[in-house]
């Protein structure tokens, strides 16, 4: 009886083993799913994406058009869970819609950072010499400005708006990303497998894109995940200063900015968007930490 | 030995490195040729210019700091040193392929081995991914990897060192190169695997009829593989000849010293192993005259002032050459 059970077990196990992929990314992913805090962070992110996608269905009111001055400054109630603002708009609806802006800014600004950073970093690290010299001096000039001030300066120069925020926040991060990529590329360009690829007739672009960059992805993914949360924070700050997406677009930062004046009389105006920011940043940071544990061998215990 | 067609002929090649600390003549005026279907072994201590010679043939020496100061490398009648970057890329991997010393790190860790062989195949042949994968499986089978259909989907870290070197050989041979340059391909492997890899390379050579330039410092490997041998010291060729000539009748004191340094089973017990005294000279500061003179037990005045030319020493065989002043006086036999 026991024997047959054992047999059954081993038979059952075999197809499972076959399904197991040996792709390193899938292995890392599986390891990540074992990390409870990272999974919690992932749930928060999924939850936020869900909200952002289904905001029109989930929101009880329209965030901009449903204003009613007679219902202004209402505290949380069954009708308005998060209360209403000075124009009588439903804060819950505005917070839900605000997630769209925050997540879009987080992702779009990272896309800008990645495209500038990877291109320049790879060029500098691979070709060295004068190219490296010019790119790294540019990066140092970038770093000489406080990042946030620089973003403000760009916003003011181009004129405030959502696209300005994408660009401004994306642009200030490129020097760090370029430096990260450059270091990685310099490490791998001397490696034997790159030399082997070259000896088999691979071109420079092939070596950069197919041999080197895939090996640099782990730290890039980590820094991008972490970067999303700081971009969301920065977006909130820019909006708070009135340099982000312009009213009446609901963004968490601008909601807090307007709520600031009523902080003593209607604190819910500032608390709920604030909590939303905290939750988002917390989620991305937890997930990013988990990713680093899985992907960065130097951090492994 | 009948005259065979010359595959590759290197003439007076000089590859220098211009570094912050001075000029390094890593390869200093060497000439040799490789014939069709022949295995040429290049022997010498670390830092004598063996690898730079190999890299020069593929034009892979980083410039700067390196520079091809003079010479020509004739391959199929064309000078490789005059070829453009693009032309060289089409030759690499296709006509001339290279195998490296470190099988552990010569494969890209983030791709499956099948993928990596495919890349090379698709680079040089008009094949789609599926056909290239079939070639990859076929190559892995040829180099004696069991279950090649399964192995193509594995990553380098899942293979042992010997397996990886087989994969490297499969990759290098996937486009049927005419010349295979092997830069110490067995140094990082243990002895049994070494023997297997050498067997494999010999077998592949017979099957494909390609020539091999085999770089090594292991004279055991030379005895096993070589048709002809070139002995290098400090960027120069000091002696060349057929494998038998080099092993049975070494003329240069350095070759002689190398051969005497091999441990032998017949030797008396407790007898110390022969060593060549001193160190390989610093390439920044080479001795005057014969580069080997500070370590040579036969060194005379002329060795310290004038460099011996590489001359033919056998009137019947122009390929048999040696560069030593002693030859002028007497036959060296010790």
Automatic annotation (TrEMBL), chain A:
One of the GO BP terms on file: transmembrane transport
Keyword Chloroplast included in the entry's annotation: no
Matching InterPro entries: BP-dependent_transpt_permease (IPR050366), MetI-like (IPR000515), MetI-like_sf (IPR035906), OppC_N (IPR025966)
Membrane topology, from the record: Multi-pass membrane protein
CDD domains listed in its UniProt record: TM_PBP2 (cd06261)
Transmembrane segments: 38-58, 107-127, 148-174, 220-241, 262-284
Location in or out of the cell: Cell membrane
Alphabetic keyword roster: Cell membrane, Membrane, Transmembrane, Transmembrane helix, Transport
PROSITE patterns tied to this protein: ABC_TM1
Record's GO cellular component terms: plasma membrane
Residue stretches in coiled coil: none
Domain ABC transmembrane type-1: start-end pairs: 99-288
Family: Belongs to the binding-protein-dependent transport system permease family.
PANTHER family hit by this protein: D,D-DIPEPTIDE TRANSPORT SYSTEM PERMEASE PROTEIN DDPC-RELATED (PTHR43386:SF1), OLIGOPEPTIDE TRANSPORT SYSTEM PERMEASE PROTEIN APPC (PTHR43386)
Protein name: Oligopeptide transport system permease protein
From TrEMBL, chain B:
Protein localization: Cell membrane
Major place of residence: membrane
Gene Ontology terms, MF aspect: ATP binding; ATP hydrolysis activity
Chain ranges of the ABC transporter domain: 8-259
Entry GO terms, CC: plasma membrane
CDD domains, per database record: ABC_NikE_OppD_transporters (cd03257)
Membrane topology: Peripheral membrane protein
Keywords noted in UniProt: ATP-binding, Cell inner membrane, Cell membrane, Membrane, Nucleotide-binding, Translocase, Transport
Gene Ontology BP, a term: peptide transport
SMART domains named in the record: AAA
Sequence similarity: Belongs to the ABC transporter superfamily.
UniProt protein name: Oligopeptide transport system ATP-binding protein
The organism of origin for this protein: Paramaledivibacter caminithermalis (strain DSM 15212 / CIP 107654 / DViRD3) (Clostridium caminithermale)
């Amino acid at each position: 009886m026991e024997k047959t059970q054992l047999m059954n077990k081993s038979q059952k196990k075999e197809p499972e083993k076959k399904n197991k992929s040996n792709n390193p990314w899938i292995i890392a992913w599986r390891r990540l799913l074992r990390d409870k805090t990272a999974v919690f962070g992932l749930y928060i992110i999924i939850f936020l994406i869900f909200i952002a996608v289904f905001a029109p269905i989930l929101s009880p009111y329209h965030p901009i058009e449903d204003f009613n001055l007679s219902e202004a400054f209402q505290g949380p109630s069954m009708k308005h869970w998060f209360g209403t603002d000075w124009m009588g708009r439903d804060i819950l609806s505005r917070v839900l819609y605000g997630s769209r802006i925050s997540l879009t800014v987080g992702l779009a600004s990272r896309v800008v950072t990645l495209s500038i950073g990877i291109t320049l970093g790879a060029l500098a690290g691979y070709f060295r010499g004068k190219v490296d010299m010019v790119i790294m001096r540019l990066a140092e000039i970038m770093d000489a400005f406080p990042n946030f001030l620089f973003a403000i300066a760009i916003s003011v120069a181009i004129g405030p708006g959502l696209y300005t925020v994408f660009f401004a926040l994306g642009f200030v991060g490129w020097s760090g990303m370029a430096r990260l990529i450059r270091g990685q590329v310099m490490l791998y360009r001397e490696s034997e497998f790159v030399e082997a690829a070259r000896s088999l007739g691979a071109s420079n672009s092939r070596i950069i894109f197919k041999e080197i960059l895939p090996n640099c992805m782990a730290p890039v993914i980590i820094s991008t995940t972490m970067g999303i949360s700081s971009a969301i924070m920065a977006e909130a700050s820019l909006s708070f200063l009135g340099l982000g997406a312009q009213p009446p677009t609901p963004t968490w930062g601008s909601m807090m900015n307007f709520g600031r004046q009523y902080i003593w009389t209607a604190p819910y105006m500032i608390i709920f968007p604030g909590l939303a920011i905290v939750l988002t940043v917390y989620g991305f940071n937890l997930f990013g930490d988990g990713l680093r544990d899985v992907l960065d061998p130097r951090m492994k215990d | 030995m009948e005259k065979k067609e010359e595959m590759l002929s290197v003439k007076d090649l000089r590859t220098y490195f211009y570094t912050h600390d001075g000029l390094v003549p890593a390869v200093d005026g060497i000439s040799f040729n490789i014939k069709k279907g022949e295995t040429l072994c290049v022997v010498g201590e670390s830092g004598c210019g063996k690898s730079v010679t190999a890299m020069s043939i593929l034009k892979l020496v980083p410039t700067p700091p390196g520079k091809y100061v003079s010479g020509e490398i004739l391959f199929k009648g064309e000078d490789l040193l005059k070829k453009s970057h693009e032309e060289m890329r089409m030759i690499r991997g296709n006509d001339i392929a290279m195998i490296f010393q470190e099988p552990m790190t010569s494969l890209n860790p983030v791709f499956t081995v099948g993928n990596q062989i495919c890349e090379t195949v698709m680079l040089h042949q008009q094949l789609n991914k599926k056909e290239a994968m079939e070639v990859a499986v076929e190559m892995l089978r040829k180099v004696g990897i069991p279950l090649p259909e399964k192995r193509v989907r594995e990553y380098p870290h899942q293979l042992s060192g010997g397996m990886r070197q087989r994969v490297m050989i499969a990759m290098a041979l996937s486009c049927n190169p005419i010349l295979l340059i092997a830069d110490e391909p067995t140094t990082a492997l243990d002895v049994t695997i070494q023997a297997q890899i050498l067997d494999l390379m010999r077998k592949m050579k017979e099957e494909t009829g390609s020539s091999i330039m085999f770089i090594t410092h292991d004279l055991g490997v030379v005895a096993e593989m070589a048709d002809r041998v070139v002995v290098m010291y400090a960027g120069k060729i000091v002696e060349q000849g057929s494998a038998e000539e080099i092993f049975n009748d070494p003329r240069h004191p350095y070759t002689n010293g190398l051969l005497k340094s091999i441990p032998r089973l017949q030797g008396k017990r407790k007898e110390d192993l022969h060593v060549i005294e001193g160190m390989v000279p610093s390439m920044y500061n080479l001795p005057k005259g014969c580069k080997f003179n500070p370590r040579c037990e036969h060194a005379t005045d002329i060795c310290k002032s004038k460099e011996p030319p590489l001359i033919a020493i056998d009137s019947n065989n122009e390929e048999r050459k040696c560069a030593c002043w002693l030859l002028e006086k007497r036959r060296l036999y010790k």
